[in-house]
Specification:
With 227 residues, the chain is of the alpha+beta class. The chain has seven helices and eight strands.
């Protein structure tokens, strides 16, 4: 009864939409949504960090993107949720690959069109991976000053890099990169436009301001939970 009165999220469903349906949002809409939802997300779900990393990288919060990436990477390696003994978090593990390729590599697939807009972390020299696309096996190398493509086997393909069409073949094709996208400093602890406060004056965080015991007495709680 208490938590429903506050904007607190367990996982990043809206932010996930910015990634999966990113061609339906403008860059400003993505930034506004990320800045609004990220500070009120608890991160209790192992599905959150990898998605937050991808969108943080895209909108320019590079420090936050890397922090979320490592959080997702060590979910099982460091047993950060205390339940790895019950089994590996497979969806989160898959999300780590997506964070590498989609977040830092800038890979997107919208309606069968393969596009790239890289965001290599400042601490890294680059990223490299192979993948199947249609009937071709591709090698992608993302460095700080270029992105390169090689068709390892299969027919030639066509991709886009920051809106420009690129024909790729068995010969290494490199496209220069002038930057790694927008760069925003900080870790985004509160939504900038709200000044860090809710309408009631409480601080915007991924928690409720008061415990349920302060709000609901035992008899009231029994009434709310009765069948």
């Amino acid at each position: 009864m208490v938590i429903y009165r506050f904007q607190v999220l367990k996982q990043t469903d809206v932010v996930l939409a910015l990634y999966l349906q990113g061609d339906q949002f403008t860059p400003d809409e993505k930034l506004a949504n990320f800045e609004y939802y990220d500070p009120i997300t608890t991160g209790d779900s192992t599905l959150s960090a990898v998605v937050q990393s991808i969108v943080a990288a895209e909108v320019g919060y590079h420090e936050l993107a890397l922090r979320y990436f490592y959080s997702g990477l060590f979910v099982d390696l460091d047993d950060r949720h205390g339940n790895t003994t019950d089994g590996t978090h497979i969806a989160s593990a898959g999300g780590v690959w997506s964070a590498l390729t989609g977040g830092f590599g800038g890979l997107r697939d919208y309606a069968g069109e393969l596009t790239f807009d890289p965001r290599v972390p400042q601490e890294w020299e680059g990223i490299e991976w192979t993948m199947l696309w249609h009937a071709s096996k591709l090698k992608i190398e993302v460095l700080r000053d270029e992105i390169a493509f090689t068709v390892l086997n299969g027919p030639d393909e066509q991709v886009k890099v920051r809106g420009e069409e690129v024909n790729i073949s068995t010969e290494r094709t490199a496209v220069p990169l002038s930057d790694q996208g927008p760069m925003r400093e900080g870790l985004l602890e509160v939504h900038p436009s709200l000044g860090g406060r809710r309408n009631d004056g409480s601080t915007i965080t991924a928690t409720v301001p008061h415990s349920w015991s302060d709000e609901i007495s035992a008899p009231d709680l029994q009434a709310h939970t009765a069948p």
